[in-house]
Amino acid sequence: GVPGPARPAARPPARPRPGSQVLRLGSPRPRLRLVGLGLTIVLLVFTVRLLQVQAVDAEAYAARANVNRYIPVTLAAERGAITDRSGVALATTVDAYDITAAPDLLTPERIKAEGAARQAAELLAPVLDEQPDVLERKLTANPASKYVVLARQQTPKVWNRIKELKKAAADRAAKKRGVNVLAGVNSEPHSKRVYPNGDLAAGILGFVNSEGRGGGGIEAQLDAVLAGRDGKLVRAQSFGRQVPTGDVQEKPAVPGSTVELTLDRDIQWAAQSAITRQVRESAADRGYVVVQDTRSGEILAMANAPGYDPNDLAHADSSALGNAALQDAYEPGSVSKVMTMAAVLEEGAATPATHVEVPNRLPRADRAFADDVDHATWHLTLNGVLAKSSNIGTILAAEQLGKDQPQANRVLHSYLRKFGIGEPTGLGFPGETPGILAPPQKWSASQQHTIPFGQGLSLNAVQAASVYSTIAGGGERVRPTLVRGTKGPDGRFTPAPAPPRTRVVSEETAKSLATMLESVVDDRDGTGTKAKIPGYRVAGKTGTSNRVDPRTGRYHGYTASFAGFAPADQPRVTVYCAIQNPTRGSYFGGQICGPVYKQVMEFALKSLQVPPSGAQPPRLPVSYGDE
User: Fold this and answer.
1) Domain count, the chain
2) Smaller CB count within 10 Å for the chain: N or C?
């Protein structure tokens, strides 16, 4: 064949020029070792970190994750009811909701720029009856928070309206691919306190504050019993919504106990109606009526005027929020004379028939004491002194308690204490006053003579009622009670402990006093004739005392009062009425409190089905000439 073209001969490798450097490639092994070492270190760091997260600090990180994943929710215990002695509800609970929100869903920068918190506040404000600015501050005060309460104790109607707003907000967000500003708004079931009878017995019941705790009265005094124990629910959540398949841990709430009071709702209504009407007609500052069972010491009614509606605290007068029948300390005046007479009779210093010459003026302690009216010298029996409510006659009788004035003071003081003056009633009511009774050695020259007729010492209305219940009870004082017992969640009723009883005076002395008190009502010259009740024997005493104005600390105006029990021959009910600073019409206790006593006592006797008296009262002599 024909030979092809000859291939050029291969060139010999070029030789470096003299003096030039030779460039050589380095070995790759060191670089590979360095890269391998770096990767090993990185993997080692990741491995150590992984071991730390999953093994060493696993519990801590899990707990931190749970803070964000799980939401603790308080399960509020249902508050126990408060009832009267027959089980009629005076305070109860209804379904309600706390409206809550998750601020962290509305405050990230991307969402915050859209004004999500403001939008949510403006949507919720009309429904919650709140200002948008207030709600917005709650939503933005702690942006990282997952829980804030926007409103407490809202009705089911309010929550249903919010659910409608949430659905509408979700629909708008879906259409516009925007933010659902109400996504984190939720509710927590709670109970709301309601008082079915409005202002009836409000001073006793008190109220529940926005935190669900007792803010006054029995609600505060027995809060631990009524409140029960809250439970706890821990649930998984994501973006403010509960995870249906998430873990749920629940500790059930324990409901509160029902408290049964000694009150009779119907008698309470009668007492409250009567005192409210008289306070209004007399243009007085306030008034109170206490009704007590003379046998058991149970308070059947304790009415205050003016009162308030615990369902509407926002419009209540702050000065009426307490229980004035237990919290007001005032000088009782002549209703206190029964204690002086009890001491005189018990000590044997006099009898109902003892003669007492009563001048128009009695000089004592650099002053002259007088009665309510000017009169010629009266020739009264001790019974007549009480019937006519003579201050001078009472001073003269009290002076017979000792060989000298200091001893007489000590004896009288001991009886006042035994009647419960100057010490708490035992009810344990919040804000109760024990009254004021100075030790006898500290009585001023004037007090030595004014305390026997009820000026210079102070008490509350329940103490005054208890004095007359002691006489009605045969001279034995039964500590007043307001709670009959409690009924637990299991339905078991636990009666309150029986109240202590203390002998104050003998049965004979108490019987004599009861007869003397009948003269106050039945005798034509008695000061309490307006308290007569047809068919019943009534024992009672009027009172008209100078009143210390709490604003100035000086005497201004009067305290009018009437206290008594019926039937006088077989006592069942004590009624005490007091009206502070009447400024229209009469200010005498017999004139304005006597009719209140009659109205309330008549109702109570009929309500309790107490039979009329079977015999006419004995008529003790009032003056020497009646003997």
Assistant:
1) 2
2) N
- Whether residues 284 and 243 fall in one domain: no
Classify residue 498 by its DSSP letter. Answer: P
Beta strand segments in 286-390, E: 286-293, 299-305, 355-358, 362-364, 367-369, 378-381
User: Are 226 and 301 within one domain?
Assistant: no
53 in any annotated domain: no
Q: What angle do CA 520, 339, 429 make, to 5 degrees?
A: 110
Q: Whole domain around residue 112: which residue ranges?
A: 83-256
Whether the pLDDT of residue 598 is over 70: the answer is yes
Same domain, 91 and 214: yes
Query: Is the separation of the CB atoms in 287 and 580 below 8 Å?
Result: yes
pLDDT band at 245 (very low <50, low <70, confident <90, very high): low
CATH of the domain at 151: 3.90.1310.10
Q: Are 236 and 299 part of one and the same domain?
A: no
Q: Are residues 235 and 278 in the same domain?
A: no
* pLDDT-based confidence at residue 404 (cuts at 50, 70, 90): very high
d(Cα 370, Cα 404) in Å, to the nearest integer?
22
Closest-CA residue to 155 (of 207, 102, 191): 191
Render pLDDT for 356-373 as a digit per residue (tens, 0 to 9).
999 999 999 889 999 988
Residue 117 neighbours by CB distance under 10 Å = 23
pLDDT in tens, 323-341: 999 999 999 999 999 999 9
CB of 527 closer than 8 Å to CB of 562: no
Per-residue confidence (pLDDT) for residue 61, from 0 to 100:
64
pTM: 0.79
| Shared-domain flag, residues 272 and 202 | no
pLDDT (tens digit per residue) in 514-554: 999 999 998 677 888 999 999 999 999 999 999 988 888 88
Collapsed DSSP state (helix, strand, coil) of residue 308? coil
Q: Are 216 and 224 in contact (CB under 8 A)?
A: no
Burial state string for 285-308 with b = 16 or more CB within 10 A and e = fewer than 16 = bbbbbbbbbbebbbbbbbbbbbbb
Would 67 be classed as within a structural domain? no
> Which secondary structure element, helix H or strand E, spans residue 485, and what is its range?
strand 483-487
Residue 402 lies in a domain: yes
Same domain, 239 and 292: no
Closest to 402 (Cα-Cα) out of 394, 393, 411, 390:
411
- Whole-number Å distance between alpha carbons of 107 and 118: 10
Q: How would you class 366 by CB atoms within 10 Å of its CB: exposed for 0-12, middle for 13-18, buried for 19 or more?
A: exposed
Report the CATH number at residue 488: 3.40.710.10
The reply to whether 231 and 279 lie within a common domain is no
What is the C-alpha to C-alpha distance for residues 531 and 525, in angstroms, rounded to an integer? 14
Question: What pLDDT, on a 0 to 100 scale, did the predictor assign at position 19?
Answer: 59
- pLDDT (0 to 100) of residue 396: 96
Facing residues of 559 across strands? 545, 580
Number of Cα atoms under 13 Å in the Cβ half of residue 41: 6
Average pLDDT over residues 167-172: 85
**Residue 543's beta-bridge partner residues?**
561
For residue 465, is pLDDT > 90? yes
Question: Does residue 41 fall inside a structural domain?
Answer: no
Q: In the prediction, which pLDDT does 182 show?
A: 84
